[in-house]
Amino acid sequence: MGLSKSSIGLGALDEGRVLHKKREGDIVAALAGNPNVGKSTVFNQMTGLRQHTGNWAGKTVANAQGYASYEGQGYVLVDIPGCYSLDAHSAEEGVARDFICSGEYDVAVVVCDALCLERNMGLVLQILQKTEKVVVCVNLMDEAEKKQICIDLKKLEERLGVPVVGTAARDGTGLEELYLAMKERAKAGEGAWHGCVGCGYRSDAAADAQRGADKCICKYGCRHGGEWTAEEICRGIVEYKDKEYAAADRRKDKFFTGKITGIPVMVLLLFFIFWLTIVGANYPSELLHDFFLSLEDKLIYGLSRLGMPVWIREMLVYGMFRVVAWVVSVMLPPMAIFFPLFTVLEDSGYLPRVAFNLDKCFKKCRACGKQALTMAMGFGCNAAGVVGCRIIDSPRERLIAIITNSFVPCNGRFPTLIAVITMFFAGMGAGASLGAALLLTGVILLGIGLTFFASWFLSATFLKGVPSSFALEMPPYRRPQIGKVVIRSVFDRTMFVLGRALLSAAPAGILLWVLANFEIEGMTMLSRLAGFLDRPARLMGMDGVILLAFILGLPANEIVVPIMLMAYLAEGSLVEVSDLHALKQLLVNQGWTWATAVSVMLFTLVHWPCATTCLTIRKETGSMKWTVISFLVPCVSGCLLCMLFHGLVSLVIKL
Question: CB-based burial of residue 29 (10 Å sphere; 0-12 exposed, 13-18 middle, 19+ buried)?
Fold first, then answer.
């Protein structure tokens, strides 16, 4: 969802391949493992960073670096994407494979899931073929204990010939032992590096080290790899006292992924999240609005005491400050509610079930079911959703997911949708919030339907192909840690998205004030621009001011409504709007009808991606061609959708 400096660590700009040591003796440790075994949780606990975590496979799509220190020893930890083997089938698995095979680390920590240790052994054995500097971290020992799964760590250590440490990373158990094992393994001589066939990395290990590693590995048949070898190693080490430990999860899956109940439950959960967001955000938004309003006179007085000219004072307060105040008061409360609720779904393990439920729909569109996960990430931030498309193996299906990601409204578009729905359709009284949530859910479902249609269209035209097979690990259901969910959601997602919006809102407010207050031949520049756009906007059921607001909102969708209001007002400043009723009256006075409101909702749902998303698409695809296509597809779709709706309304009125 949100991507921030604190969540992706030191290697944000260089894909984690440039190692950032603080001093010469620092140990570089690669955190490898299957997807969804807790690598990022181990990374966060040891470094204090906030790498994105969640109870589903595919969250980490690039290397992240962090620094830790224990007993005077420094550690550079590299959290690499999860992979089931070194035979990469997707972009993020390629990132993991390349780093493991590069040998640019002192020790490889292979994190395993205590609940399914045998499946994790395949990657352990493959990495042991490349280097003997390995520490096996058996994570989730607390969950294994609850499910009455006993693991003999000492016996496993004897069989593998490398240190094995049991941890419960969520509460920090066992990390001290892991530090010591990493230090001991890294300092135990030069070790052996065996290269990686087909990866372009040359083997330069000494012959005696090679033979030593071969002796260790061949003792258990690891050179041949495979399911049988992993089974043999785990035999007698893992004991299941409760043979039906997963029965409860299977019963839940019958409900959440059933043919009859799966889709309706998903829609009800979506409705419930939106209802809580709307109900919970109203009162805090009013408080924030009143608070910022009370600061205006103080700011004007303070700036006048500094001797600033009147036009600068008004530009800063009535332009920049009011736009920023609107963004904060309207965006912060919904995000502070929506992100924690969405994170609860992530941590509980429900999101992969959503992908499972939608897989048949995507397959009929010749796309991949994993697109449902990237679509879900787009609810928070479309740029994050585009980056998340790395989890899709097929380049064709990855492009489809990238191009259609903007059909899902990001958190910057929710305030506009909520405001328009509440003003024109939800009514008043106790049922207003339920009506608003129901309509908002309908709009989101329309966006999902358009995603299916666009995916099918692209598969039938520009990106023809056969849908690939879809294999997705179903994680166990877990009880979310509410405290950590709130902290991670607020600081790593809400504040990051809000901060990015404010960076766009502040200069946009100044620019709008200038355009609205400087005249050319008796008409403001803002009015001239709106007049120029009025004719094409009327074809879509809107006016020039609305279309201009969307165009100027390219840096961030959050500033569309403030731009619209400022453009409507003759004073050229965002005047006080006490509540949504007053805002509705202002819009009605400017010629808005229910049909205008619907057109605005449709265009808010489907229009060009923001500047950040466009830059991300350019980086992910490496192609200006596909970046332009990713811009044009939602843009043309939104224009056609609005024109179709406006034409139907006009036809009905004439009849």
Answer: buried
